[in-house]
Structure formats: C-alpha cells, structure tokens
Amino acid sequence: MRDIIVSCFSENAINVSHPSCSSYSNTNCISPSQSPCVQNAVTSIYKIILSNQNVFSVKVAWCKNNSVQGLSINLGDDPLSTLKLNINSRLFRKKKGTKAFDSGHSKVEIFWDLSNAKFEQNPEPVEGFYVVIVLDSEIGLVLGDMADEALLKKLKTNYVNNKPVGIARASLVSRQEHCSGINTLYSTKARFCETGITHEILIKCSGDNEGLKHPVLSVSIDKKTVIRVKRLQWNFRGNQTIFVDGLLVDLLWDVHDWFFNNPASSSSSSSSGYAVFMFRTRSGMDSRLWLEEKLAQKEHDRLEFSLLIYACKSLQ
C-alpha cells in the first residue's frame, strides 16, 4: 500500500459532521439505473487482550461466490489454529457446534450457530447467528445477535467446575472488503473508533454514461462528499485527510487498474483489475503517513483502525 503515497494530490482536511446520520440510507444517493457492487468477501482482524495481558490476533473471514459460502477463523499465524466452515457444502451438516484446540500454550474454544443466520446478499450474516471465541476460559470475542445461549452454557459449565469466567478486551483493528460489479458504485458501513457511531460510506465513479467528459471519483460519508477527484485517469492515486468523530482519518485511493490494466494479459479476461480504497485513523502527532520507523511504537499507542476496500470493475 505504501506505493500509493507516491502520488499525493491533496492534503486538505474535511470535517464530517454526523447529526442524525444513523438514520441515513445509501439508497437515497443511488440512481435506479445503477446497481451497486456486490460483496464477495469480508475479513475482520481483532485484537484481544486477556486479563493476564496476553494478546491474541484473531482473523474472521466470510466469503461467498457461486460455489462456496463459508466462514474461517484464524488465531495468529498458526495454520493449525483454524476453523473452516463451508455452509453450502452437502458435507456440511453441523451449522451449530463447538471446536476446541490448543494454540501455543493457550486453550481455545469456538462456539457457533449459523442454522438460522440471515445473509441477505452479503457473505457476512446480518442477524440470527452467533460466533463466540473463548481463550483460556475468558470470553474473547462475541459476534452476532444470538450469543446468549452459548455464553450461558459456557458460564454454567465453568460455574459447576468453580472456574470464574472473565471477559477479555476485544477491539476491531482492520476490516477488508472485496466487491465486484459492472457499475463502480459501492456502499458500506464503518465505525472508526469504539466510542463512535456507525457511518455510511458511498464510493461512486461517474463516467461517460452520465454526460461527463472525464471520469470523476466521489466518496461520501453520511451524505456529505468528502472527496471529489476530477480527471480520474490522471489522478488515479492520491490521498485526502478528513475528520470523523474528532479523529484524523487518511483516505487513500488507487484506481490505476481500472484504466490501465490489460484484461487480455490478466488472469481474468472479464475483470479490469482491483481498485483499492483505504480509510485509516492516525494520531495527530504523525505529520506524515506510514512512518515505518514508528511501526513498532504504534503497537503501544492508541489503537488505530483501518478499512480496506478492494473493488473489482467487471467488464460483463
């Protein structure tokens, strides 16, 4: 991602106000003639800190395509500390279950129930499910709206064994979203800090079909346009600094492949390649982006969040 910084075209700061934005729907900004891009995969990385200060990194990935719809959970870099579920497979009968394994010197237990999960058109379910990860008898991560059953079961079991159940601190560190579609129109939601609200993000690329001589990229947060890049074929890489919930957020884009990728030479002749959009919070003490000498130091600073979007513009 650092090569995106080579071509920076603006560092103007834009403040995003958010009164009553929680009731906003992106459908108000979408023309009936435009169908939004579809999510193919969502990957979230969580940082979990136990009461003994042990730190775990947990990656939760949801994917969906013509043949597979599934969930995978990885702890750290250990390939053996993995849970993989293929919901569409005929061999997959257990949409509700548990799995226990050791990761290093820690005991890991995963509880899940996807039997009544509602996915709509996304790879990630929106309701009717739960995924609970327990690390060394501490509840590390809870996903979904139906987790009470698993939690009560775990609490009851440990009460009988006279083992107290703690609750670890879990924070969402990064989220990656893969999407594809004929139209370059994508909407998603993000919360940039634990105390902030959920914001609606809309990314749109206007073109010749709208009477414009040159493609224009616009990004809106809660109905407010935060960037508008004209002559996108020239300004295909850049960055902008915005304020969201009182935080500095660096918005970076790289749409080079949308214009200059040769489908005939790529692995998929039906795709023009991925564009990349990143939203990343940073400390006001950093005067420049991506200071490599501060990477180690950032581990001890305020937790930062990044949203990474890979947008594939389909040709058919």
Automatic annotation (TrEMBL):
It comes from the Eukaryota. Pfam families: DUF868. PANTHER family: EXPRESSED PROTEIN (PTHR31972), OS04G0407500 PROTEIN (PTHR31972:SF48). This is DUF868 domain-containing protein.
